[in-house]
């Protein structure tokens, strides 16, 4: 399969195919309906947790208007008349709650690597994964399907630096990763803890005191200063002072926050009373579309 291009989104997969794009299998690539009990979830799906409230809301909508968006499936390996979900597990769960007997599907013959990439893209585009789920999905693409970071970034429509930063979260100890999964710590908190020598202890303090990301960064910095000693602090202070003269800490922090939210490289040039310039780097029209969608708060 081509290692690039899936970052263009799911429309090409969930929409109508041209004759040249359709597979030879009579059901593959076409929209059909399947009994809901013939469909099974993917055990390797990136999303590990589902909001009961969100599922209930979707089920209510399906009960009223039906399931408007088909579920993308592939034939389940070694299971006759069973189809594994590639994209749409939330819709499948909600359809069960809505007591549907059959659901619209698109059946495609997909490899394990294609399935992993599409499942990750679908979750990133439709409902945000928590940071650990996203990081673990990137790691799975790299380890199980031999994708390097640049290929993963191209596939999901994110910057390479975003993928790299997400993968760094896997270096945190499991107790801290669990706090991120459960929402007790944000991506910003987790990123700050990466430079801590005692991330678990600091994470517990951050959660207990309800510290903001900025407060967490100061806490980690204070820890580093205490350990390094006066000489190291002096040397580090000179370096930071030189850097800060070009761009202050708040501006750099804001750049990181926006880059984290968009998954793209961001640069802010503040010019005091004259205002400034915000630059967002994108490498494709699809990434530009995603930025516009977020700015206009339009649902995918």
- What would you give as the CATH superfamily of the largest domain? Conserved hypothetical protein from pyrococcus furiosus pfu- 392566-001, ParB domain
Largest sheet: 5 strands, mixed
| Strand residues, percent | 5-15%
SSE succession = HEEHEEHEHHHHHHHHHEEH
Assign the structural class, choosing from mainly alpha, mainly beta, alpha/beta, alpha+beta, or little secondary structure: alpha/beta
Mean pLDDT: 77
Question: Roughly how many Å apart are the termini?
Answer: 26 Å
Give me the number of helical elements. Answer: 13
- The residue ranges in which pLDDT falls below 50 over 5 or more consecutive positions are 1-28, 230-236, 238-245
Per the CATH scheme, the topology name of the largest domain is Conserved hypothetical protein from pyrococcus furiosus pfu- 392566-001, ParB domain
Could you characterize what this model shows?
- The chain has 300 residues and is of the alpha/beta class.
- The chain folds into three domains: 6-146, Conserved hypothetical protein from pyrococcus furiosus pfu- 392566-001, ParB domain (Alpha-Beta Complex); 172-245, no CATH class; 247-300, no CATH class.
- The protein is 53% helix and 11% strand.
- Helix 5 packs across helix 7 (160-168) and helix 9 (187-193) packs across helix 11.
- The chain is globular.
- Residues 1-28, 230-236 and 238-245 have low confidence and may be disordered.
SSE layout and pairings?
Layout: H1 11-14, E1 31-35, E2 39-40, H2 52-65, E3 71-75, E4 83-87, H3 89-97, E5 102-107, H4 112-126, H5 131-145, H6 149-156, H7 160-168, H8 174-181, H9 187-193, H10 199-209, H11 213-244, H12 249-262, E6 266-270, E7 276-280, H13 285-296
Parallel strand pairs: 2-4, 3-5
Antiparallel strand pairs: 1-5, 3-4, 6-7
């Amino acid at each position: 399969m081509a290692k690039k291009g899936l970052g263009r989104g799911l429309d090409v997969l969930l929409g109508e195919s041209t004759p040249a794009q359709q597979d030879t299998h009579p059901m593959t690539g076409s929209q059909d309906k399947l009994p809901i009990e013939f469909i099974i979830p993917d055990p390797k799906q990136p999303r590990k947790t589902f909001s009961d409230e969100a599922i209930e809301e979707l089920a209510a909508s399906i009960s009223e208007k039906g399931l408007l968006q088909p579920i993308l499936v592939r034939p389940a390996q070694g299971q006759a008349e069973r189809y594994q979900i590639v994209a749409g597990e939330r819709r499948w769960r909600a359809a069960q709650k809505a007591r549907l007997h059959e659901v619209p599907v698109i059946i495609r013959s997909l490899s394990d690597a294609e399935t992993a990439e599409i499942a990750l893209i679908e979750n990133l585009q439709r409902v945000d994964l928590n940071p650990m789920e996203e990081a673990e999905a990137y790691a799975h693409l790299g380890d199980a399907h031999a994708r390097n970071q640049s290929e993963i970034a191209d596939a999901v429509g994110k910057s390479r630096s975003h993928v790299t930063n997400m993968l760094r979260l896997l270096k945190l100890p499991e107790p801290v990763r669990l706090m991120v999964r459960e929402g007790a710590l944000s991506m910003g908190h987790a990123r700050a803890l990466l430079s801590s020598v005692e991330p678990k202890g600091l994470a517990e303090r951050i959660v207990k005191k309800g510290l903001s990301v900025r407060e967490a960064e100061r806490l980690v910095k204070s820890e580093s200063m205490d350990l390094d000693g006066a000489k190291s602090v002096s040397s580090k202070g000179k370096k930071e002072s030189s850097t800060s003269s070009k761009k202050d800490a708040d501006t750099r922090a804001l750049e990181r926050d926006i880059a984290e939210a968009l998954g793209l490289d961001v640069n802010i040039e503040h010019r005091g009373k004259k205002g400034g310039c915000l630059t967002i780097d994108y490498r494709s029209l699809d990434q530009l579309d995603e930025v516009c969608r977020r700015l206009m708060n339009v649902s995918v």
